Amino acid sequence: MRGVPRDIEPRLLRAFAAVADELHFTRAAARLYLAQQALSRDIRRLERELGTDLFVRTTRQVTLTADGERLLPYALRVLGAQDELLAASAGEAAALLVDLNTEGMVGGRVLARARELAPGRELMARFASGLTGASADIAAGRLDASFGYFEGLDPALRAGLSRQLVRYEPLAVLLPSGHRLAAREALTLGDLAGEVVYAGHGNPLTREWTDLARQLFAGHAIEIAPPAPMAVGRTEFQRVMTRNRSLVLAVVDFPEMPDTVLRPLVAPVPLAPLSLVWRKGRKDPGIEAMRAAAKELTDEEHWLERIPDSWIPPLSPH
To answer: Strand, coil or helix: what is 46?
Structure first.
C-alpha cells in the first residue's frame, strides 16, 4: 500500500471488514443495511484512498488481496476502539454480550462464575449462533465474546480475534430413541459407518463445526447430512430431528431432549477444543472476568487434561 492517508472514515473500514468477513458483497450489504451499490462505492473509495486493491472480484467469488489481508487486523482494531469510545461516551459501559450458542453448556458455567468475579459489570447471555456467526458479530462490534472451535474459523477472521483454550470437549452423537444404535452405551466411528450425521452443513453460522466433523469422519464412511433449513429453538430442533430421524454430532454435555438419547464416542474419544473468543486488543473488566473464570474452572475441572486414547484436531499457534 502507498502512504496511508491521515484520515480514513470508520464507515469505509466497517464496509471493508464486513466484505472481508462475508467474502460476498450482497451479504455484507445486507448485514450493514446498505444497498449493494453504496457498499461497492465505499470499497472503491477506500481502495482509491489507500492506492491498492483490497479484493479480487470475479463472477464466482470474492477474495482478499495480500494488502487486504494486511489491512484487516488493523481495521478491526480501529473499529473496536471506536465502539469502545462510543460506549464510554454514553456515560457507562454497555452490557457485555456473550453468545453461548446453547443453554446448559460449558460457556454458561464460565459466564456464571464471571458474574461472581465482576458483580459490578453487566454480563448478558444470548443463544443465537455458532462461532463462525458469533465471530463475525465480534469483529463488527455487535457482540463481545463467544465460545467454540477457533481453528475452524477462516484465517482472515482469526487474525482479528484472541482466544483462550478452555476445554477439550468429548464428542457424542444425539440419536432418536428408537434408532438401531440407541441401545448401546457408547459408539465408535465404525458403528456410524453408512450413517448420515447432521453437523450444521450449509448453515453459514456454524461452518467451524462442519469443518470439525469433516476431519473426524474422514475415512470412516460417515456422510455429513446435506444442507437443510436451520431449526431455531430447542422445540423446533427436536421436532425436525424426530421427523427426519436425524443423527446429530454433539458434545457430551448437550442438554437432554425428549425422545432422544445421547451416546459418547469412544475408541478413540474425539475431543473438540473449546475456546473463549473475543476481539483482539479489547480491554474490558468483563472480558478479564470471563478469562479469569474460564481459567479457574479449567483448573478445577481439569478440562485441558487429555483423555487416553483420544483424537483431537490440529491446534493453531494463535
So the answer is: helix
